[in-house]
Amino acid sequence: MGTSGTLESAGIGIGDEVVVPAFGSAEVTEAVVRAGAVPVFADIDPDTYCLDPAAVADVVTSRTAAVIAVHRFGHQADLDRLHEVGERHGLLVHATAEPGVAPAGAERRRAYATYLAGRLRGVATPTERAEHTYEQYVVRVPGNGRPDRDAFARMLRGKGVACRVPVPVPVYRMPQYRRDLLLPHTERACDETLALPVAESLTRRELQRMVSACNALGGLLQPAF
What is the DSSP letter of 216? Predict the structure, then answer.
């Protein structure tokens, strides 16, 4: 059952608020709107890119009926703490996988991640967790946010590395969902993150080339103060 179906089956709709992440695609937000409810955006944990339970608790009101968490990039949302918030306020807590990501090949991706984490110097590598499946290998580019990250990405692509920006803007900056918000961890993640390729088809030589390219470029960027 999809998110909108889950909400409708729980009787959640017009007049209800549903807490959702602003970091990621708009699919979850769209599902909330289809159910007739109002999406309310909460900030993320900067290490996992999933909803921060403390931030969720901060936006709960008397109209809040549910929380929709998304497991992001292979990180698992902190469902234990989210359920604690849900029980405290009488909320439905529903978790969903990241849209459009296949779970197969986790062991190969973990092996790639271990290799990259031990060798990358020009970027901040993902926080290692036992449950992390690395469905995307998302690093942070140091420097002055989006201008440096975008320049770094262009230079990597010029060296043949098929990197991409995973989340260009928060959902609340999209025209159809625009809100006057500033969620700092969400904003910073949109400005700094870059997904490096970890497809199963990658060869050891391609991984080595990617490491060399990142490490050569990393020295060009200085952290902002």
Answer: H
b/e 106-144 (16+ beta carbons within 10 angstroms → b) = eeebbebbeebeeebebbebbeeeeebbbbbbbbbbbbb
Residue 225 clears pLDDT 50, i.e. is over it: no
- The predicted pLDDT at position 220 comes to 54
Q: How far apart are CA 213 and CA 93, in angstroms?
A: 42
- Global pTM reads 0.91
In angstroms, rounded to a whole number, what is the distance separating the alpha carbons of residues 140 and 189? 8
Reduced 3-state DSSP string for 167-194: CCCCHHHCHHHCCCCCCHHHHHHHHHEE
Q: What is the pLDDT of residues 51-63, one digit of tens each?
A: 999 999 999 999 9
Residue range 108-159, pLDDT digits in tens: 899 999 999 999 998 999 988 888 899 999 999 988 889 999 999 999 999 9
Catalogue all structural domains in the chain, each as residue range(s) with its CATH number.
3-97 (3.40.640.10), 106-218 (3.90.1150.10)
Cα gap 166→141, rounded to integer Å: 13
